[in-house]
Amino acid sequence: MLAIISRIKTNNPLTGLRWKILFAFLVIVGASFLIIAANLLNLVGYHLFEQRIGTDYLNVEKLSVQAAPLFSDRESQELQNVLQQAGGQLGGRFIIVDTDYKVQFDSFNQIIGRRLVLPEISGILDGGKSVDFGVHKLHDPEAAEQDRGLFSSLRSNDDGVAWVAYATAALTGLDGIEGVLLFLSPMQEMMVDLVNLQDRMLIYFIAAASAALIVAMVFSRVITKPIISLTRVIQRMGKGDLSARAQIKGSGEFKRLAITFNSMSERLEALDTSRNQFVANASHELKTPLATMKIMLESMIYQPDMEEALRNEFMTDMNNEIDRLNIIITDLLSLVQMDTNRTNLNRSDMDLADVIRAVTRKLTPIARSKHQIILVNTPEPCPMYADSSKLTQVIYNLVDNAIKYTQPAGQITVTLSKTGRDALLTVKDNGPGIPLKDQSQVFDRFYRVDRARSRETGGTGLGLSIAAQIIQMHGGSIYFESDPDEGTAFHVELPIHRG
Q1: Which candidate, 160, 178, 236, 255, has a CA 20 to 30 Å from the CA of 154?
Q2: C-alpha span between 341 and 353 (Å, rounded)
Q3: pLDDT tens digit string along 367-422?
Q4: Alpha carbons 150 and 142: distance in angstroms, whole number
Q5: Radius of gyration, alpha carbons of the chain
């Protein structure tokens, strides 16, 4: 795992979190600005068009009322004067078209007699409307034969593009619609204003995007700085420096991340230290009996005339050392299987009180050889669903430890009781107790309070560690109480219910 961490590299900086934040920030700001700008332009344009349409409708309807009787009575000169005067006042051009689309009057006197077919005129003559309005964008209008001279006074730019508004109203006489009044007015200035507004919006967008980019760079730097720092710490750990820790700064998620990472680092460092210590202790425990056997075997090889009694003694000692090696290896394999979760519990219905009595009967001869007394207090059956063989191992280790670490003529008390839905097993002795400085390491592997005496009695320092893991696999807990010169009591709580 450390090797994998050490190879973590950022091949492409543009794929980093900082650039992703920048991109996302710009996309959000840009999209928001474009939506607002588009809506604003539409709103302004809609307002201007509505205002212009309303004004042109009012003007053309008002003039149509005045012009209709003059057109019916063929008051040509007076009607021409009215159209020219109104066109001059409104800054546009008035044209009257009869029902055959022929121009009868023109305030500019340029296209009288020509046919003029426009959608706004057709809307009244053929569509049944009383008024109509339209806006057109014209490119080189003089190229259209029917429009020749119609737009000459309305072109207001140099590229041949003009925006023109048509407002039409029906001229109604006694026989119905007799013609159409067309008001032709330039809209170039209003459209230029809208284009200018659009250009200004583009400038504002560029300015806002630039400001957003600067803010996003600062913001993303603030966000990614703790992550970059944490990455460097991880890389240090990947190179083997498990003492590396992240700096805890600020508040919120990054602070919690740093605290969690440091907690994980401390656990990794502790596990690595424990592993190294475990390997060292295991090597030492395996090396000691091997060295002893090697010395005795070499003595037998180089002393062929060794006395038979001494040779038998050496052979017996080597046999004991082999047994001790076998016990150590068996315990190590058990720990490895439990560490890798490859050990399954073979649960079945059992009585914990029966197991306790069977174990204490087996160990009573050993206790008697040391003039010790084992008192068993199991007043009632304790049925439960558990692995009988593994709990036997737990009870055996606890009682055996009590016998080993209790002085001759001492007393070991084994008590079983029920507390709610749990069974409580207590193994108490009246030995010298566990020194305060050693109590935190009691469940550590290969740890022994009295190494010399435990080696003499065959102890490996793995019994309590194995017992603790078996109890944990059953969902229980183990703890102890110890006072110098008063003895030690180990307490085991196990769930009684099935599961």
Answers
A1: 178
A2: 28
A3: 898 999 999 998 788 888 888 888 988 898 899 888 988 889 899 999 999 887 88
A4: 8
A5: 52
